[in-house]
């Protein structure tokens, strides 16, 4: 009896110490920036993982996006990696900047992760040479959200808005403005987001495939600038400043449409009075060669720090949840409106939901289809610099300066900035 | 006499307009904290009924009590240390005047022109090497020697009756005791004014705490505010409640010490 | 009462030892105490201001991306002159300086002399109201201003309602109006702060001077320019220098209200330093060079202002 007890105690003790050696309790720290979106989603991912691996927990620190980028720069630049988290969220436009400015700071994962299950444009963003860093997260696949009631007042049906060009969009906008007094869209002259949407929809960017500045002779960019000018001049664009005001034009019913990334869905739906009045059509297209009806705006991915003590655990966690767990993608879609860039997710039931806010349209199924068709471009590492150079010339453009001159100036400033 | 009345009227009109312009944003803040985001965006100017809802939402998103504790701890401690160290220096420069010390003093004044942006990266590296990152101590340390407060105390010490020091010396009182037992009591209102200025600066600090603090448990109210306002779907009702919460303590400190503040400022500009 | 005592005391022969500084022991005692009192602050400033700024001087001789840098010597200075954004930021900073600082100083002076009028009713209330803006945190007040000055915001709504304007003003989206908004914001935040300095200084002006002037029939406006302003010269100089330095380093407001836009119309030097370090592909060396430009101009302007004050 006593013998058995002693044996039992010894066994338990050995068991404990073994367990301790094999899998110590690990807490993975994560930086993300939106409490209602990526922070909440990462928390959900963490809970799912902990349920299966009780020795690993995930703790998400919520910091404003600008602040997060700044802290990451400060820590990496000073070489003080101790306070860095294990996993950090980086916007796709910035990925190359961090990867190239701080070589060796992030963990390459191409040996572990099957990248073929993600939208190809996302994987490109995180590739340098043969190495792939990071796990693709949400996509910014774009669509044209519009108010069916306002457009009906102006005499347009859903068919009139399906697969249109931007030129047609402006024509429609003029009619809408004339008949209803509302603007067709809100536009922030500080934010070249819409121009980027237009450019990428034609497979073009500020930089060519090799990363060289491509502005002066960029036909897609030229057409985009002309369109922005025409929108502003014709009075169909309502000027806004900053994110909230731009979203505000939609919620308060001042504009008839908003063309942007799918992540806007939650904001569009935030005014319940407008339920049933919205629909989503494909992004309007340019007329240049290579023009398509899909594009992307924003989107971000998870990266693991090389300095992390829990590097392997972090990669294992991301790999298990983000590249395999279809149910997880259904849950974050339903709860948070997040459309992942994981291609398998679209097969799930949640994507087939008919959304009452959009009068029964299966919006997520549409977005999921569009995601796979987003044209690949090389964002390079200088998107912010290019944006700044572009924004600096927009007033001149709107005041009537010739587009070619404007393009010339943008190219000059950009080249100076990135020397 | 008529002209006199007219100019009186003009005076009151001018002051009333200025007061209105100064106070309106506070009114807007209070009103907005009781409204929903939709109402705020549509410019609603009357009080709504969403205050409790906004406050509850804010409190579920962040641990308000903890954030408040952190901000107060940093503000109070760094204010106390700043007052001690900087008033000592202001006193020292004025009471023990010497050519060498005046040279050092002028050099100190010059450092006021250095923009913080220029110091940020080296300072961060220093804190990292000293193993102080992600501590409240690192937030306070670089702010303790405030050149502006040194300057302020030196100015005020100029009108401090030096005979008191001489009298105490004749009685054989030690120098540091003169500072503590003679200088402090006389300069009470100067300290009050400095307390308000330093407390407000510290409470309102943003950029440096942002860089140094990493853990959520250590964050201050301004970091939380800026984080809230940069969400994909910012909830303005919640943000406005946050701004109210962030403003109340500085207001309270100001109201509590207003009398001494005015008296203290008067001493500084003789 | 106490002043007469102190006058007697100070006219009395002082401690004889103090008169003869060469007399060793007191001099040493004096010096040791002097350095002890100022030592803490001086050491901290040296550690947290002087050392980092020298460090950043070394940085300014380098250029590159993030941690991939090379020594470029004075290359960054050459780059400054060809950098349109830098030139824009510099000229914006000077526009803010030339318009905002004098306007704010005048306004604070006017307000404080109004508040100093004898027999003014509600003096405390007015003073409190006008001072109140400077207790707000920069983050909080920037959020407030952004919301008030938005296109649909309460400011446009009120102006439209009163009929002062017929179309909403694009406060934050037009390059000209964005500058105006920033100037209004800074003026709102800091006028009361400066006013308190003037008010305090005015308490020290002998009331009988004004009494005499009034008996002579000198009007209020003349009193302001010929009595108040000259007597307050040291304080005005001090606040001007402080405001100048503040404007040269202008960052928080711009960062939180316009982020330097639209079209760099509110870009300031500090904002540009921030962008170069934390927004663009980080070039800390070039950023350090730009920050030295601020130090340079601040020093020159402060010197000029002190010199002007001395000449007058």
TrEMBL record, chain A:
Keywords: Signal. GO terms for cellular component: periplasmic space. Residues 1-23 form the signal peptide. Its main location: periplasm. The keyword Transferase does not apply. The keyword Coiled coil does not apply. SUPFAM superfamilies: Periplasmic binding protein-like II. Gene3D superfamilies: Periplasmic binding protein-like II. It is found in: Periplasm. Belongs to the bacterial solute-binding protein 1 family. This is Extracellular solute-binding protein. It comes from Alginatibacterium sediminis.
From TrEMBL, chain B:
Keywords: Cell membrane, Membrane, Transmembrane, Transmembrane helix, Transport. It comes from the Bacteria. It is found in: Cell membrane. Gene3D superfamilies: MetI-like. It is a multi-pass membrane protein. GO terms for biological process: transmembrane transport. The chain crosses the membrane at residues 9-30, 74-93, 105-124, 136-153, 191-211, 231-256. One of its GO terms (cellular component) is plasma membrane. Belongs to the binding-protein-dependent transport system permease family. This is Carbohydrate ABC transporter permease. It comes from Alginatibacterium sediminis.
UniProtKB/TrEMBL annotation, chain C:
Residues 1-23 are annotated as: Disordered. CDD domains: TM_PBP2. InterPro entries: ABC_transporter_permease, MetI-like, MetI-like_sf. The chain crosses the membrane at residues 32-54, 89-112, 124-144, 176-199, 224-245, 284-304. The keyword Zinc does not apply. GO terms for biological process: transmembrane transport. GO terms for cellular component: plasma membrane. It is found in: Cell membrane. It is a multi-pass membrane protein. Keywords: Cell membrane, Membrane, Transmembrane, Transmembrane helix, Transport. Residues 90-305 form the ABC transmembrane type-1 domain. The keyword Cell membrane applies. Residues 1-11 have a biased composition (Low complexity). Belongs to the binding-protein-dependent transport system permease family. This is Sugar ABC transporter permease.
